[in-house]
Design a protein that fits this description.
5-stranded antiparallel sheet
Length: 452
């Protein structure tokens, strides 16, 4: 066996994926136009776009304070949204429901608390992880490896005979005990290396979108409704075929894994992941379809794939499933049989949470045509599952991805033209300033000469 075994892999999104970056879009750094696109920019762009209107911001800061100052700045930025959009670093399609929400709330007071204090509409949108230079999303190697690690630990727990939560004597040391290591430097999973993957779609489909994350009950129960808050987030769009390429590397160093806890090759790794994630995908499709949360064409199409070409590739370990990112659910990040998920509202631990977070586009109250978060397919060794690609393309069309692509291409062309005009205008202004300076300098020199 060679020192390093490398497998090329591609990632396709079956549903939206959000990898938290710790950053938010805020209304002082984005606008949403009348066509439903979010345009994001920094403070330098604000200065460039507003020009002499910057004096208005200075005036607002001078004469207003606190919440009223923020509201006035929000309104000024919104009123100049067309100029700001033309200089934006990134443009992202927005859920129709969020566009409506933005229009109704931007620059307004959200509510008044009991103490008469106003609550400002911040309208923050959680950003997914991106490359700050290209503004394209990245699926990090650490996220992929984390999902793989869960599947590996689950397999080891089953082999160890852990069938009930009571079988785990030291929960905080569970990973150490299963993988047989004492500290992070001796963790056998250090031998598994996963590279980051940046978005590249051959059809040039938009990479991300703004959606609602809404809570729904997983199984109906009389008198019970989901109580989780609605959040707004940027997610890598679902139905993007082979849009991320990365490497999976096995380092051959037996001394790091003396107890042979790691899968021996990529085929065994794929099997371990499918053993863990495939039953969960099938279960979720059945449960959510029974609740009528999901679009029927999505469920039937995906089930047909799992019973056909995709299912065969999974059985042959040529591909595997993972679930990534925020709102993929604690159920998919914990070990079978021994999971204990703490529910703060109920102050107790359960084996399966009663609620699920789903992606919505029309409103926070949307109850149909929702999508689960986080499901992806990894294809190995440059295979291409044609039926999967066809299904994803059909779903992308159904969700207007190709129309959005054409809109974005046209907008980028307009942006390029407008930015060229602005740059020429800037150069002309600099030239005019320089000519004026030279004239003043000549006049000064001439005046001095006449004095002498």
């Amino acid at each position: 066996m060679s020192f390093l075994n490398v497998t090329k892999a591609t990632l396709s999104t079956l549903s939206p994926v959000h990898l938290g970056s710790g950053e938010d879009f805020l209304p002082t750094n984005y606008v949403i136009d009348d066509n439903g696109w979010l345009h994001s920019f920094n403070e330098m762009v604000i200065a460039q776009a507003l020009g002499n209107k910057l004096e208005q911001i200075k005036g607002i800061i001078h004469r207003e304070h606190g919440e009223q100052m923020l509201l006035s700045i929000q309104r000024l930025i919104h009123d100049n949204r067309d100029k700001l959009a033309m200089l934006a670093a990134t443009s992202i399609p927005v859920a129709t429901g969020f566009q409506t929400l933005y229009k109704s709330r931007i620059g307004q007071v959200a509510q008044r608390e009991n103490n008469r204090r106003n609550v400002i509409n911040q309208l923050p949108i959680m950003r997914t992880f991106i490359n700050p230079h290209t503004h394209l999303p990245i699926i990090t190697g650490s996220a992929i490896k984390g999902a793989i690690r869960t599947a590996i630990l689950n397999g080891l727990a089953i082999k160890a005979g852990l069938r009930r939560p009571q079988d785990v004597t030291m929960p905080k040391k569970l990973a150490n005990n299963l993988l047989k290591f004492d500290n992070p430097t001796t963790d056998p999973l250090k031998l598994l290396k996963i590279s980051d993957a940046e978005y590249h779609n051959t059809d040039q489909l938009p990479a991300t979108e703004i959606v609602f994350a809404v809570s729904k009950r997983r199984i109906a129960k009389a008198g019970k409704t989901a109580g989780g808050p609605t959040t707004y987030l940027e997610a890598v769009s679902g139905f993007r075929s082979q849009s991320f390429v990365f490497d999976i590397r096995f380092v051959n160093n037996p001394s790091q894994d003396p107890n042979h806890k790691l899968p021996k090759d990529i085929g065994e790794l794929a099997k371990i992941c499918n053993d863990y994630y495939l039953p969960k995908l099938n279960k979720e499709l059945l449960e959510l379809d029974e609740m009528n949360y999901l679009d029927g064409a999505f469920v039937r199409g995906l089930q047909q794939l799992l019973n056909g070409q995709l299912g065969q590739a999974l059985q042959q370990n040529k591909a595997f499933l993972l679930r990534l990112g925020k709102h993929s659910g604690a159920y998919n990040k914990t070990l079978d049989n021994i999971r204990q998920i703490y529910i703060p509202q109920h102050k107790k631990s359960v084996s399966e949470p009663p609620e699920v977070r789903l992606a919505a586009t029309t409103s926070s109250q949307q109850a149909v045509n929702l999508l689960p978060f986080g499901w992806v397919v990894i294809e190995l060794n440059e295979i291409s599952l044609q039926e999967l690609g066809t299904f994803l393309k059909q779903q992308a069309k159904q969700h207007n991805a190709y129309q959005l692509r054409d809109t974005l291409i046209n907008f980028k062309q307009q942006q390029t033209t407008q930015q060229a005009k602005l740059e020429q205008q800037r150069l002309d202004e600099l030239k005019e300033i320089e000519e004026k300076r030279l004239q003043e300098e000549q006049a000064r020199l001439q005046a001095e000469a006449e004095k002498n």
